[in-house]
Amino acid sequence: MKQKSATRKTALYFKKTWSLYLMMSLPVAFALVFRYLPMTNIAMAFKEYNMFKGVWASPWSDPVFKWFEKAFTTKDFWDALRNTLMLNSLDLAFGFPIPVFLAILLNELAFKRYKKVTQTIVYLPHFLSWIIISGIAKQLLAPRSGIVNVLLNSVGAKPIDFLTNPTLYIGTYIAFGLWKEMGWNTIIYLAAITGINPELYEAAEVDGASRWKKIWHITLPGIRSTIVVLLIMNLGRILGSEFDRPYSMANSLVMSVADVLSTYVYRVGIRGFQFSLTAAVGLFQSVICVIFLFSANAIAKKFGERGIW
Questions:
Q1: What pLDDT does 174 receive?
Q2: 41: in domain
Q3: Could you count the other beta carbons within 10 Å of the beta carbon of residue 298?
């Protein structure tokens, strides 16, 4: 009887919710086909890949870790790894806290119309591609024809090599990344701030708390869990590197600091038709990112935070 009752309840449940499961089947199918199924081709990292034979018909490498050894014994790989860690660490150090401060500042604005206009302005760069932004950077900062250096030259100052000096290039790279994404990243923090109970602010105001004290004792603790989760996710991408940003902003004079793993894979692996090498480097990146993700989550839990699972 109990089994029949459970079966009936299950049938009634699916009868009521079948449409939800039907809608959910589309994104699940998309994830399986375009996210998980391609992961089977990771075997390419351990094979002598032949594009005419395919992944599974290609012979295994001898030794099996041949492509990892080839990458790890190449100076260009270690230079790209160093640059990836350096640029991503600087991105994290400067790009992670500023959206938090910006969200708090926008939340504290008293004039709603001005707040909406400011939000729109700081969000807009996110929708520009890195190709467009690199074009803007070159128009502004080119050594001879850039607007900034033309103005400096007009007042008798020497031009600044923003895009050709390796040290200045790093600052320019980080600054444009910050400008592009800081407004978009504030959305999550603003949403978290709106979830804070307004009665806490009212009680603090009755107690005579200043605006700074309300931010320090109410706003920041209220969004702390969100900050921790996003920090863990960013640490999980510390070795990942997008391709369009470094590729579009780099030039031959700054390759010593601009060549990251994604451009290394494109230059040596894809253009050099060493597809097994690209798979090996990609697998290495993924494993290190997973290690960082699990480590950051474990540390967060150790300090009493909820983490991401």
A1: 94
A2: no
A3: 11
Burial class (CB in 10 A: 0-12, 13-18, 19+), 72: middle
pTM: 0.85
Strand-pairing partners, residue 60, are: 47
Domain CATH code at residue 70: 1.10.3720.10
Reading the block at residue 152, the tokens are 């400096």
Tokens of residue 277, six digits = 């090498």
- Do 9 and 121 reside in the same domain of the chain? no
The Cα 68–Cα 73 span in angstroms is 9
Query: Structurally, how many domains does the chain consist of?
Result: 2
The reply to whether 11 and 68 lie within a common domain is no
Render pLDDT for 152-177 as a digit per residue (tens, 0 to 9): 888 888 889 999 999 999 999 999 99
- Domain with 17 in it: 1-35
Average pLDDT, rounded, for the chain: 88
Cβ–Cβ < 8 Å for 179, 249: no
